[in-house]
Write a structure and sequence with these properties.
Helix content is about 25%, strand content about 20%. The protein is of the alpha+beta class. It has two domains: about 5-125, Alpha-Beta Barrel (N-terminal domain of MutM-like DNA repair proteins); about 140-265, Orthogonal Bundle (Helicase, Ruva Protein, domain 3). The strands form three sheets. The chain has a four-stranded antiparallel sheet. The protein has a four-stranded antiparallel sheet with strand order 2-3-4-8. A two-stranded antiparallel ribbon has the order 9-10. Helix 1 (about 5-20) packs across helix 6 (about 195-210), helix 3 crosses helix 6 (about 195-210) and helix 5 packs across helix 6 (about 195-210).
Length: about 270
């Protein structure tokens, strides 16, 4: 699943090609995604100029004078810039056509979303109750510590809850907890402020590093230019079962926590 770094990498990749450019056409080949594509999207978006592209959690927000296009990549979606004459493939469901290039939405599993709102997109029902962005100043160890008071849920599930903080997916949660020396099953309410300060810093660092390196290579994710991410080369524990811990050389363990594979070092994380 494309996570925050992949979505941010995509935003940065497509922005120079479509910002301040007029939409010449919208082609919808499949309207049945996770939610039906907004009716009359072509009428709403055609001839509009894309003023800006922002990201909120894993949603991309395309701003025009009359409204906002909201795109979510779902489980297997991607956005790519292709030349206008390139023929679509089986799972290319939506094209946003510009003068020389087309922004193409590809989604084999159809768990993504392409929606339109004429109101503030941050007030949309899908975005309104999301937690803070992990890369902003408002996300701190103190915030996590206060939010965790009395919580018996394990720390990995806690930081993956989008109502607590957005964008900390399975890979990045495992890596951040390892760097912080925190066992993924430790109760969120039983972690000190000092350790939460360390964890918040590591979440920021892991995500920033992943963004700079182009995201993590996943089976279904490729860049907008078709090239995979390279953060996979930097992983310490995720998907490293049985390999030596980079700190203590003990083998990395894996355990299912909240229906997700969780990778950790018994010696270094407690």
């Amino acid at each position: 699943m494309p996570e925050l770094p992949e979505v941010e990498t995509t935003r940065r990749g497509i922005s120079p090609h479509i910002k301040q450019r007029q939409v010449n056409d919208v082609v919808i080949r499949q309207s049945s995604l996770r939610w039906p594509i907004t009716r009359n999207l072509k009428h709403k978006l055609k001839n509009q100029i894309i003023d800006d592209i922002q990201r909120r959690a894993k949603y991309l927000l395309f701003t025009t004078q009359t409204g906002h296009l909201i795109i979510h990549l779902g489980m297997s979606g991607s956005l790519r810039m292709v030349k206008n004459h390139v023929e679509p493939t089986k799972h290319d469901h939506v094209d946003i056509v510009f003068n020389k290039m087309t922004l193409r939405f590809h989604d084999p599993r159809r768990f993504g979303a392409v929606l339109w709102t004429s109101r503030d997109p941050l007030e949309h029902k899908l975005l309104k109750k999301l937690g803070p962005e992990p890369l902003l100043d408002e996300f701190t160890g103190e915030y996590l510590h206060q939010s965790a008071q009395g919580k018996k849920v394990n720390i990995k599930t806690f930081i993956m809850n989008a109502h607590i903080v957005v964008g900390v997916g399975n890979i990045y949660a495992s890596e951040s907890l390892f760097l912080s020396g925190i066992h993924p099953q430790r109760a969120a309410g039983r972690i000190s402020l000092k350790r939460y300060n360390i964890l918040a810093d590591n979440i920021k660092n892991v995500l920033r590093n992943a963004i700079e390196l182009g995201g993590t290579t996943l089976r279904d994710f490729v860049h907008e230019d078709g090239k995979p991410g390279y953060f996979a080369n930097e992983l310490n524990v995720y998907n490293q079962t049985g390999k030596p811990c980079p700190v203590c050389n003990n083998p990395i363990k894996v355990r299912t926590i909240s229906q997700r594979s969780s990778f950790y070092c018994v010696q270094c994380q407690h």
